[in-house]
Amino acid sequence: MNYHTHSAFGLLFTLITVKIIVLFDLVDISYLLNGSLFNGTLIKFYLAAVVGALMPDLDHAQSKMGQLLWFISKPLKFFGIKHRGLTHSLVGIVLFNLLSKQLVTHNWIEITTWWGLNIGYISHIVADMMNVQGLPLLFPNDKRFKFHSNITTNSWQEQFLVFIVSLAIIIIILQERSYINLSEIINMITLN
């Protein structure tokens, strides 16, 4: 998957995750979905999710994140960390979680931003499981896990996925901001 796909999927995954958390009242984070679109906390949270969605590709020096954070990407390559290996596994998720938590501990980022980064990171793993190659979730075990969608990078299927994901993001945001009412639209369609 390319960075456009991971960015869009990361945002959608985060929106859905937040809706589930609010729906089941797991943690009171409803402020992330209510209020102004220009709420600073909201913008930071979702931007962090998009950044987090790109972070696993630090293991690929030519990726957008690998180029931006070359001082991390180059040592990973030097130490033999291969693309879609450690950073694309459950171990990678835990390591990213622990390392990024240090940013909160040192007051470099807020906890809300940390949550966004980590939800985004997980979204990358889920999205890459739609890829033909799959991922070694149980790294260092080489067994690859994947969904049966068989999407290849930069294929028409990936472009179609980006279109569907972007459409879903727009619909969710419009619904949450009360610009549209999906229940009424569905009722209108089913009654006619």
Distance from N terminus to C terminus (CA atoms, Å) equals 40 Å
What is the 3D shape? globular
Helix fraction, binned, reads 55-70%
The proportion of residues in beta strands is under 5%
Count of all domains: 1
Biggest β-sheet description = none
- Spell out the helices and strands N to C: HHHHHHHH
Spans of at least 5 consecutive residues whose pLDDT stays below 50 are none
Structural class: mainly alpha
Extended strand count: 0
Output mean pLDDT.
Answer: 89
Number of helices: 8
Radius of gyration: 18 Å
Protein name: Inner membrane protein
Transmembrane segments: 7-24, 36-55, 160-180
Keywords: Membrane, Transmembrane, Transmembrane helix
Pfam families: YdjM
List the helices and strands and how they pair.
Layout (H helix, E strand, L loop, with lengths): L2 H21 L16 H15 L9 H5 L1 H9 L11 H16 L5 H18 L27 H21 L5 H10 L1
Protein name: Inner membrane protein
Organism: Halanaerobacter jeridensis
Keywords: Membrane, Transmembrane, Transmembrane helix
How would you summarize what this structure contains?
Keywords: Membrane, Transmembrane, Transmembrane helix. This is Inner membrane protein. This protein is mostly helical.
Describe the fold and architecture.
The model has no long low-confidence stretch (mean pLDDT 89). The longest helix is centred in the first third of the chain and has 21 residues, at 3-23. This protein is 60% helix and 0% strand. The protein has helices spanning 3-23, 40-54, 64-68, 70-78, 90-105, 111-128, 156-176, 182-191. It has 192 residues and is mainly alpha-helical. The chain contains 8 helices and no strands. α1 packs across α2 (40-54), α2 packs parallel to α6 (111-128) and α5 (90-105) packs antiparallel against α6 (111-128). The chain has one domain (3-191).
